[in-house]
Amino acid sequence: MDTGTPAGATDTAKRPRTERGRRTLRRLLDAAAIEFGERGFHEASISGITARAGTALGSFYTYFDSKEAIFQALVRDMSEAVKVAAREALAEPASALERERAALAAFLRFAAEHKEVYRIIDEAEFVDPESYRQHYETTGARILERLREGGRKGELRANLEEAHAWAIMGMNVFLGLRYAVWGDGDMPAERVAALANDLLANGIAAER
Amino acid sequence: MDTGTPAGATDTAKRPRTERGRRTLRRLLDAAAIEFGERGFHEASISGITARAGTALGSFYTYFDSKEAIFQALVRDMSEAVKVAAREALAEPASALERERAALAAFLRFAAEHKEVYRIIDEAEFVDPESYRQHYETTGARILERLREGGRKGELRANLEEAHAWAIMGMNVFLGLRYAVWGDGDMPAERVAALANDLLANGIAAER
């Protein structure tokens, strides 16, 4: 997963000073995503990460003190990558509802390409509970900000609150689990996002 | 957590033949919920479970072969308990939308009383992936059945499909995480359920 500057990582990783160092750090995080994603935290090893990254063990310790430290950096990096994936989809001017649709479609495509993101963020509940909670709290806050903006523009109801943002986040996470991670491509991201968006636009009650 | 007959457990546990045996099995599962909920799968121990249950080690092995076996039985037992909690709320005649509201409120109350349910079902993703997936697939199928029934009665849209059921399941799971598990009682279950139900009834778009 190359999402450019490992922004989320720099909270817990030592910051690289050179472009070469930045690339090494990126390689380590990408390798850690595969190692933790395939083996889980407990079975994963630092030597497994450096072997996948093609770096020396010394390079690992330049940036991280432990397996826990790179796991934490990875969770924050992935949380950032989820945000970036959605933000790119939000770049074009669109209505508030269209933005939710685009954000979900982008997330579904991201999750299909990086199926390990679920396993790693979910395992953070046990390995690094603070990063786990932070991931959902910041994601929920971002959705709430979009809902409020839509409210101010008169496109969405003005009384939307945190519970609506968490409801939408839960919808998106579970649709990603079902169709991007467990799915066999039986339903394209665009169609899943369109169905969810129709629910947000119209609800599920029969027309009166 | 006493949910009566440990129905979900009997797939993987040896079936008790007597009422006394049934009570011992129930005590072991309730003790396991606390032990796994507090310590996590890896730190939890069989002796910790039997100490909490007040049973001899021999009683444990009457019903389970291993820590893995009781964990699996517990996940299925909790999955069943979630179903039972919702079903009791659904017993009264009500419209399809009111049923969704009642099911969510019941789930939120259940999760607030049994906060360990999240940690245990979430840890199943790593310890017992098949039970994890089965929990969500059967829960999603149950919601879809309710949606289709509502469609047949003309109360809900006739074109609701699996994606809508998973969207609603995700909403419910994340609202439970935020307000029942992480919440400090800042929002009562009935109000969370009412907000989510309003989203299902009307969507989030501004009125036109």
Q: What is the top-level CATH class of chain A? A: Mainly Alpha
- The count of strands of chain A amounts to 0
From the coordinates shown, what is the CATH architecture of chain A?
Orthogonal Bundle
Q: Name the helix and strand elements of chain A from N-terminus to C-terminus, one letter apiece.
A: HHHHHHHHH
Largest interface: A-B, 51 and 51 residues
User: Radius of gyration of chain A over alpha carbons?
Assistant: 19 Å
- Bulk shape of chain A: elongated
Q: Name the assembly state.
A: homodimer
Low-confidence stretches of chain A: 1-5
Mean pLDDT over the residues of chain A: 91
How much helical structure, as a percent, in the residues of chain A?
over 70%
CATH superfamily of chain A, by name, is Tetracycline Repressor, domain 2
- Number of domain modules of chain A: 1
Pfam families (chains A, B): TetR_N
Keywords (chains A, B): DNA-binding, Transcription, Transcription regulation
GO molecular function (chains A, B): DNA-binding transcription factor activity; transcription cis-regulatory region binding
InterPro entries (chains A, B): Homeodomain-like_sf, HTH-type_TetR-like_transc_reg, HTH_TetR, Tet_transcr_reg_TetR-rel_C_sf
Account of the protein in words:
Two copies of one chain form a homodimer. Chain A is an all-alpha fold. The first copy, chain A, has one domain (7-202): Tetracycline Repressor, domain 2 (Orthogonal Bundle), CATH 1.10.357. Chain A is built from nine helices and no strands. In chain A, helix 1 (19-43) crosses helix 2 (46-53) and helix 4 runs parallel beside helix 7. The radius of gyration of chain A is 19 Å and the shape is elongated. Residues 1-5 of chain A have low confidence and may be disordered. At the A-B interface, helix 6, helix 7, helix 8 and helix 9 of A face helix 6, helix 7, helix 8 and helix 9 of B.
